[in-house]
């Protein structure tokens, strides 16, 4: 046993930690503690062991954290998606209103011409100029007049009783 190098005694540290062996190099460098060999346990297992949690408890804590995150994200996400749909609907409505405004401005420009106003009065209101003789020609295929509220009276409806009118309205006759 003379060929074997002399072993140094293990150093003890304070603070309740396990003593570590120290190797001293022969070339005079300072001593380094020997790192113990890694065991087959993973980092999470070692962390769980440090906190005293079993695998089931870790899974439960993880599930609670995931649920809390999902619930904290769900409400703002739902609000965002709802508002995004509302914004798209309002933008579509705004585009429709702009097209209506353009159509009304074109109509206003048309009605600025006195000849156009006169033609509209003749066609829609059936006005005539003083000294003109109006003629009304009704053709058999005409459904009536262009004037709103000027519905032709139905002779058939006047002859029927109220319950017959109701039944015809319900049955679609």
UniProtKB/TrEMBL annotation:
GO terms for biological process, alphabetical: cell division
Membrane found in the keyword field: yes
InterPro entries in UniProt: FtsL/DivIC
Keywords, comma-separated and alphabetical: Cell cycle, Cell division, Membrane, Transmembrane, Transmembrane helix
Top-level lineage group: Bacteria
Segments forming a coiled coil: none
Pfam families in the record: DivIC
Disordered: annotated segments: 1-41, 137-159
Membrane-spanning ranges: 59-77
Compositional bias ranges of the Basic and acidic residues kind: 1-11
Protein name: Cell division protein FtsB
């Amino acid at each position: 046993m003379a060929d074997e190098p002399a072993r140094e005694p293990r150093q003890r540290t304070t603070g309740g930690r396990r003593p570590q062996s120290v190797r001293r190099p022969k070339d005079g460098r300072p001593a380094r503690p020997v790192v113990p060999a890694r065991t087959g346990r993973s980092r999470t297992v070692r962390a769980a062991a440090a906190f005293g949690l079993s695998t089931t408890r870790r899974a439960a804590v993880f599930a609670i954290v995931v649920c809390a995150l999902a619930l904290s994200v769900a409400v703002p996400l739902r609000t965002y998606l709802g508002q995004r749909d509302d914004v798209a609907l309002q933008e579509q409505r705004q585009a429709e209103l702009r097209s209506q405004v353009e159509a009304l401005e074109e109509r206003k420009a048309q009605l600025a011409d006195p000849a156009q106003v006169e033609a509209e009065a003749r066609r829609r209101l059936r006005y005539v100029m003083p000294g003109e003789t109006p003629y009304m020609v009704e053709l058999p295929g005409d459904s009536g007049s262009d004037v709103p509220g000027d519905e032709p009276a139905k002779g058939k409806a006047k002859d029927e009783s109220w319950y017959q009118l109701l039944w015809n309205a319900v049955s679609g006759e």
